[in-house]
Design brief:
It is built from five helices and no strands. It is mainly alpha-helical and 154 residues long. The relative contact order is 0.24. It has one domain. It starts with a helix and ends in a 20-residue tail after the last helix. The chain is globular, with a radius of gyration of 15 Å. 31% of the residues lie in helices and 0% in strands. Bound molecules: heme C (HEC). The site of heme C has 22 residues, from helix 3 and helix 4.
Amino acid sequence: MRAHLLVFGLCLTLLGAGVACSSSSTNKLSGAPGTGTSDNAPAAVKKYGCQNCHGTDMSGVTVALTMQPDGVDLYPPNLTTDQATGIGTWTDGQLEFAIKNGVDKDGLVLCPQMKHFSQITPEEMSETIKFLRGLPSVKKDIPGSICPPLKTKM
Ligand code: HEC
């Protein structure tokens, strides 16, 4: 509940700044689970290079991305529908908010290397989320990213 309020607060702040903001929890964009493949990525996913970081099958990477500054370890998370290790429990609204504003479903700010795709069009967002929902579920634990001062080693 607290996290929800956090996101909501942020949403209002962004709205105040004139930024389009949608954290509604509709599931109308969802595709049937397991019907997609990593080869049929829609144009938006290719255009924004999501697979370059999150992996061809979007199940995340357990080896930190290379070419990052000292002390920065980035592990792009599992974006398949697995409930425990992926985004299976995220709503479309939460995904949209994370992709546009770099804030996760608990209201925590993501490392800035996960870009804020604020220019993404509603059509691109819809095909991206549909693609994620349709990917075969992969159970894969991904370490937490480290990007001081935002996220530091536990
Ligand atoms: C430059 C590499 C990179 C690209 C390109 C990228 N991401 Fe990410 N993404 C990351 C990293 C790293 C994180 C984790 C950041 C953190 O935990 O603080 C992340 C986090 C996320 C999250 C939050 C997931 C979670 O479990 O917290 C979502 C959703 C997401 N990315 C979707 C996308 C989508 C969709 C695209 C393409 C439009 C994309 N990303 C492109 C690196 C990338």
